[in-house]
Amino acid sequence: MTQPPSPDTKNQPGVDFMRLNQADASELLHYKTQLEAVERVSHALFQSIDLDELVETTLHIALEEVGAEAGSILLADPEKEELIFQYSIGEKPVPRGTAIPWDKGISGSVFQSGEPRITTRVDHEANHLQQIDQATGFVTRDMITVPLRRWRGEPIGVLNVLNKRDGSLTNHDLGLLTIISAFAALAILQAKQFEDAKKAEVVTLLGDIGHDMKNLLTPVQTGVELLRDVVKDLFGAMNSAELTHNKTNKKICDESVEIAQNGIRRLDDRVKEMADCVKGLSAPPNFAPCSVGQVILEVFQTLQGLARGKQITLRTEGLDSLPKFHADERRLYNAFYNLINNAIPETPRGGSITVRGHLDQDTGGIALAVTDTGRGMPPEIRDCLFSAKAVSTKKGGTGLGTKIVKDVVNAHKGKIWVESEPGVGTTFHLRFPLDPTTLHAQCR
User: Fold this and answer.
1) Domains of the chain: residue spans and CATH
2) In 3D, which of 96, 101, 77, 71 has the Cα closest to residue 85?
3) Contact 382, 412 (CB under 8 A)
4) Structure confidence by residue, pLDDT tens digits, 244-277
5) Cβ contact 156:135 at 8 Å
6) With a threshold of 0.70, does the pTM exceed it?
7) CA atoms within 13 A on the CB side of 170
8) How far apart are CA 250 and CA 373, in angstroms?
9) Which of 31, 32, 78, 248 is the one with CA 20 to 30 A from 381?
10) Are 434 and 417 in contact (CB under 8 A)?
């Protein structure tokens, strides 16, 4: 009787771990873990095209797979040659938007070389950026840093995991993170390409809107010029007594015409700046001697009607004593217009918005503050206001206004921060050097 063929173990699914020695079993378990990580990462990351969501998901997966206490993902900003903390997890996370030079520290070294790295004793590492730990109060013991890179291209950022909970970080952990980082980089690039495509659509739409607005404003501009000529002729025909009697009316008419003309010009500037903001581009600033008091006065003139309707007082303190400084007047106007225009609906009736100014004794620059007696902001909104995670809390808002303000401050090599408390009010602090064209003009 013919015996049935013996089973061919090579063609059988699964593996008999009992026949393997300990080293082989460990190696197979290692590969099995990596395959499971690949399956989990690919499923999780390619379910979304939102950049923030992808970064957060990547970091959570990395920490769970390795069993680490904390971690961060830093993305490169080629324009500033910096690595920006895009997302951080842990008991004491690094604030989003924190920047480091992309050639400094362990992260900078990995970003420049494109080679992953295990650092078992961070406290013995000379190029570890201690100021990050000092700022957060976190103590880094060991870490793995892996580049996030294009396929056969330069890195776009780095992924860090810190402090393994059980034991020390190993080459096995490094292998898992290398797989995760490869998938994450592909997903992040895909998300960025999608965002760029959306931006291109918005820029095109803004261009069309700007063209339409220009066409619509042409008859308004013509009407304002006709009104100016009529007012000029009307008051020009009056004798001295009539002119004295109508002095107030003439002043109101002249101011109204000027406000209308300035409004038309500013509206055109606004559309252009919004388009630049969406594109992430910025035309070179046009620096010239500028009086910040005059800029604020023009903003107040434009918004006075809106503020008066809510019985909100607009006032200044100390601006007349400030010297002129080198600034782009158009951009400066847009920044303060945004801050004050946003403050008006947040300020209850009978409240006030005050712009204060003085010379900063520490830097020799100009110190300004925009203070309202409004509702204030909760900490989660306040703390990310000038970061990439900033969102508008107003119905139908885009958050572009906040970004425009930050771009203006950056263009002037200045600094901006906010203090706010719910129910008390909000103060935006701004610092500008007297001449941002000098080499070391950056405010501290």
Assistant:
1) 17-193 (3.30.450.40), 285-444 (3.30.565.10)
2) 96
3) no
4) 877 777 777 777 777 777 766 666 666 666 656 5
5) no
6) no
7) 9
8) 35
9) 78
10) no
